[in-house]
Amino acid sequence: MLVLLAACTRSGTPAVGAAALETVPATRQRLVVEVEATGVIRPIEAVEVRSKASGQIVALPVETGAIVRRGDLLVRIDPRDPQNRFDQARASLQAAEAAVQVAKTQADRNYTLLAKGVVTAPEVEQARLTLANAQAQLAAARTNLELATIALEDVTIRAPSDGIVIARNVSPGQVIASATNSPSGGTILMSLADLTAVYDSVLVNESDIGRIRPGQGVAVTADAYPGRTFRGTVTKVEPNATVQQSVTFFPVKIRLENTDGALMPGMNTDVSVLVAQEDDVLVVPVDAVRTTREAPTVAVALGLDPEAVRSLAQGNGRRPTAQGDSASGRPVAVGRADSAAGAGRAERRSGRGGRDGQPAANVRVRTAPTAAAAGRAERGGRGIVFVKTSAGLEPRVVTTGLRNYDVVEITGGLVAGEQVALVSGALLQQSRQRQQEQIRSRTSMPGMGGSGATGGGQGGGRRGGG
Known about the structure:
Helix content: 25-40%
Distance between the termini: 17 Å
Strand content: 25-35%
Number of helices: 9
Number of strands: 20
Strand order of the largest sheet: 2-11-15-13-12-16
Largest sheet: 6 strands, antiparallel, barrel
C-alpha cells in the first residue's frame, strides 16, 4: 500500500486507459433538430355567458359538455318582475296615444273656432301646448315600453354562438346578479367554446425561443391518446416572458384542428417543433465533441499534453507530446482539421430534453446542462474531437453544423468511419481519482503516520508492524 500511495503521489492523476475508453465511429445519417416542450390544451375563444337581468333561475336545460347551437335556450330567469313592468309600460303607451289624439282634436277645434271669433288666440296657444306635452309623453311611453320589452327578453339567455358548454357555474333556483347593474360585472352563468379547433399553450425555454417562428409544423402527443400524434402550426410567439423557478420561458400558441373533439381543454401535451432536418450528414455523438475551452481539461484526463492541445485548439497547429497511452506508453499523434468547410452552420443546443420514455425530471435536467455536459461545440462552429488511430488518440479540430440532443453534424475535419472517443467517462474517472486522493491526504490510514512526510509515514508503518 505504501508503494502504491507513493507512486500515485509522484505521478499525479493517472490517465484513462485506451482499453477502458469507449469509442464510436463517425456515421452518415439523417439529422432532425427539434425543440421540445410541454403544453396545455386551451379553447381558441371561450365565451363567458352572463345575464343582463337579475333574479332567480327557473330553467337551466343544459349540462356541461352539451353541444349547443346559436339561439338555443341556456338559462331562464323568473320573468314576473319584467313582465309586470312590460304590462305597465304598454298600458302607459296606450294612455299616451289616447292623450295625443284628444289634444290633437282639441287643437283642431280651437283653430276652427278662432276663425269664427269664438275663441281667443291665447286659448288656441294653450291647446297647442297641451298637444305638444301629450306627444312628449307618448314618446316617453314608447321608450319605456321598448326598455321593458328588452328587460323581458333578457330573462331568457340564449347561446351567442355554436359551441360546447365547457363550464356551468350556476344551478336552478340560484339568484344571480345583473351584469349591467352589478359593480362586479354580474354572475358568470357558464362558458362556451368551439372545440373544432383548439390551441396548445406551450412554454418554451428562452434558449430555444429564437428558433421558433409562426408557421412551423408541430407534432403534439397527449397522454390520453398513446401512439396518436396531432399535427399543428405555430401561430404566435408571445413577447412577454414568464419566469418559473428562476428559468425564463416564453409562451407559444399552437393551433390544432380538433374536428373529432378528442382534445379537450386542460389536457397536458408534449410538443415537438421541427426546426431543421438534413439527410445524409456526417454525425458523431454529442459526448465526442468538446469546445476548445474544454479541450485542455479533457487532454489531461486522456493522458495528452494539455498545453499542446490548447495550442492546437487556438489554431497554431503545434503537435502535442503525449504523456503516453496508459496501456502502451506510445506517443500520440495530432492531425489538423479542415476548419473552413461548413463554418457558420452551427446551431445552439436546445434547452429542453426529448421524451424518449424518460420522465419530466430528465427533461428539466437537459434544459439546464452543466459545464461538464457532453458535446457542446462553440457557437462559431468549431470543436475538438479525439480520434482513435493506430498511434493512439489524436486530438483534432472539427467544424460543426446542426445538432440535436444526441448527435452533432461534422462539416469538416473528420471522415466517415473514423473512431472518436466518448470523453465523459474519462472525465468522470478523473474526478473520482481526485476525490480519492483528497480523501487519502486528509485521512490517516492504519499503519501510516497520517498526512505527514513520507519518512514519518514509514516510521508509523514500522511501529504498526511492531
